[in-house]
Amino acid sequence: MRAWTALTVLLALLLTAPAAFAQTVSSIEIGGTTQGAVTASDPAPSFFFEAAGPMTLLARIQVSADQLVPVLLAAGSDNQVISTVSATPGMRVLESQFAVPGPGRYFVQVQGVNNSQGVFSLALLDVNALTPTPTIAPTATPAPPAQPLNPGGSVSGEVSAAIPEQRYAITGANGGLVIRIDSPSRGAPGFPAFTLTDQTGAALAALSGGLRGGTLVLPADEGAAYTLTVTFSGGEVQPYRVALLDALTYLVLESEALSRLNAPPATSAPLQPTEAASIATAPPAQPPAATGVDLLLRWDGSALVMTNVAGVPVNISTLSMSGNNRSVDSSYWARSNPALNLAALPAGSCVGLRPLAYPDAPPLPPVCNDLGGWWSADIVYVWGGDSFNVYLNGALAATCPSNAGQCGVDVPEV
User: Do domains 1-129 and 142-262 have the same CATH topology?
Assistant: First the structure.
């Protein structure tokens, strides 16, 4: 069996002292630009800035090709996260718009996805001082009325040249709300732009159509009226998915992996590292294997493993999955093992996915005898919701209920 070491995102949310995670602490002026580098000795450089009052800011990172894949985080001096957005491999520019609630000291922090390193340029701009981007006027069907979007709810939709805009009405809550946006398919052609406005029409935050997802944060204001506008950014039909979470739920989801790493669940006494590792990597109890399928997916809370049970090589190069407001495609396995032939996954071989809290190779299910590649990152945790979809060449191949623990997929013959 081959053993492939997956690169892992180390998302330092600064839940403890900042010095524990970032060796470099610098400052940046609003309207200014600075240079920095993510290195092995300095994995999370931070840049503090002062805000004179409530305002919407744009943080923009530019990187060189084939080096740093950045994660951009914004937070207050009390270490409360305001916004976080991650780039995908090959993305040269990463932008994040976020609103600061009032005067005070804040910071932005840069990290590397899957331990990637490299130099970067960071700009911090006042959105109100930027030249506004021309809006695309509807050319055919008028925009439909705003649809209500309630906390805990999600919606999938699409915009196009015929329907260039969709709108969603959101009511504020005292605890604050977070809008999570992502693409239902990494193969989707293009991605819309998203703008959050208040009841006066003033823009509070935005997400560039050049990104494949991110988060927008609503102020903690009970009963306030907000509108999320989805705008067509050109090209083909652009699908999207939006979920509305209360701020506490969002923070729990995003910090769950880091919490497990820093504070393993205690029994009568705190677990020792070796005990925690044993629990994390113990093979789960598996249901009986499905029959009559080409690919068998098996999962529990710590891993998902997909095995070729067809008896012949199977093409998984166009396979992707989406669910739990996340998505993943076969490129993750190609990056973990460049020698892996995705167009002909050998019979009896498997590939795996793990949440960030489990950086080691997943345990093999009984039907797999060779782990071809695996990846550990929270962005791949698609099976954490009620169900997830499996696509082949952009077409739906299977919908898998997450509580089933396994799912079979047939691969059409070419």
Answer: yes
